[in-house]
Specification:
The complex is a heterodimer of chains A (110) and B (120).
Chain A lengths: L8 E4 L5 E6 L11 E6 L6 E4 L13 E6 L2 E6 L8 E8 L5 E3 L3 E5 L1
Parallel strand pairs in A: 1-9
Antiparallel strand pairs in A: 2-6, 3-4, 3-7, 5-6, 7-8, 7-9
Chain B lengths: L2 E4 L3 E3 L5 E8 L7 E7 L5 E7 L6 E3 L7 E6 L4 E6 L8 E8 L7 E4 L3 E5 L2
Parallel strand pairs in B: 2-11
Antiparallel strand pairs in B: 1-3, 3-8, 4-5, 4-9, 5-6, 7-8, 9-10, 9-11
The chains are: A mainly beta (110), B mainly beta (120).
Amino acid sequence: QSALTQPASVSGSPGQSITISCTGTSTDVGAYNLVSWYQQHPGKAPTLLMFEGSKRPSGVSNRFSGSKSGNTASLTISGLQAEDEAEYYCCSYAGSALYFFGTGTWVTVL
Amino acid sequence: QVQLVQSGTEVKKPGASVKVSCKASGYTFSSFGISWVRQAPGQGLEWMGWISVYNGNTNYAQNLRGRLTLTSDISTNTAYMELGSLRSGDTAVYYCARDRRGSGSYFDYWGLGTLVTVSS
């Protein structure tokens, strides 16, 4: 098993919506509804955006939403804002008490 | 509020070991596990392993088994990550994170990170 696959970069204009995909396999993303998403600004620690695929922790904007279909999870950012420019990582539980992170996606706000 | 405070920057020579601490506050330490995640310069996040603070059970990423040891001390609310036989590829920022294993399997609070540089 290895890292989950994410696009290297996604961009959008302020106010637009973008979607980041996270593709795994039938033994991780496809097997469990246990995908989480993290936002990381340069030089900072990651912060939790989403857990169990589509649940937002308190304090996270409802502009962020998550979903899953088969072996692919997705994070959608609606009403894109300048502060959303950051790196985004998915993470999936993979059985046998292991986790795998995605390769990361840099979001550019044009 | 929940806080995870990590120890400071380390510089080690190849072949040496490093031990990083992570002191928790703001919650009952024994009620949650701790995972460790590292990030090499310019690279993505890599999950390293997990420890159950409650009973000391551990799980390690396959590529680190044999070099990684996770421990915790309930008396001081501190988790430790020790990595041995260091090589240049271990240069990274090391994060501890509270692990919500068994209730969603995610990391809800993170430390600020500890930079470990391996260089001769």
